[in-house]
Amino acid sequence: MDNLDHLMSTHDKIRKSFDAQNEWRAEKEELAMNANQAAIDSKALLKEIADNTAYLKELVTINRETQLNTEELNLIMRAIFDVAKAKNKDEADTLLSKAIKGISEAGETAGNVASLITVALGIYNTVTALL
């Protein structure tokens, strides 16, 4: 009986060892999946940040190349940034239309008009995504 007890004890130890190893593998796989998901989420977040801040370059370019005086540029920029205050999509649409009208009537160069519209659309897209 002593041999049988020893064999049973050894068998239990081996089974527990396999169980522990299987648990360790499952935890390792879960950690790897979580790490992969975190990397995917981080990449998506970085892309979103890049997309949402792309218009900053346009602002610098406009500031350097504008033919408008400070007051005119401030009025246009205020109209553009008013889009960010929209409480709903209809208001955002109205404010965007007003900003684009102001941009097109400002007498700016075609390149700066395009840059200003890019900024306005960037803000509009961000705002409507949050509504």
From TrEMBL:
Entry superkingdom: Bacteria
Query: Which protein are we looking at?
Result: Uncharacterized protein
**What organism is listed for this UniProt entry?**
Candidatus Enterococcus ferrettii
